[in-house]
Amino acid sequence: MLFHVTMTVRLPADMPPDVAADLKAREKTLAADLQRAGKWRHLWRVAGQYANVSVFDVADNGELHDLLIGLPLFPYMDIAVTPLCRHPSSVRDGDA
Ligand SMILES: O=C(O)CC1=CCC(=O)O1
């Protein structure tokens, strides 16, 4: 199943820089692993915002939930999830 996910990062202004840097580094490593595994299909920066638009390819809602709550930045993100399905006019094969 494909899900469109918007993540807006809101780090507390008083978070120590080393703590923020560690969170971001761990987020980057996990995001890379999930992209290589084919679970995190797209990862785009929203221009002008500390936010991303992503597409996840996971088995079901539960897998997406587990994946999202496992992200190091999860406690500091507003997340909006939109389930996707194939558009009847899409010329692409499958769910690519
Ligand atoms: O910077 C972000 O949008 C949050 C994030 C997701 C994956 C990553 O490396 O950072």
From TrEMBL:
EC supergroup of this enzyme: isomerase
Leader peptide range in chain numbering: none
One of the GO BP terms on file: beta-ketoadipate pathway
Catalytic activity: (S)-muconolactone = (4,5-dihydro-5-oxofuran-2-yl)-acetate
Family (UniProt): Belongs to the muconolactone Delta-isomerase family.
Record note on quaternary structure: Homodecamer.
Protein name, per record: Muconolactone Delta-isomerase
Organism: Azospirillum griseum
Lineage of origin: Bacteria, Pseudomonadati, Pseudomonadota, Alphaproteobacteria, Rhodospirillales
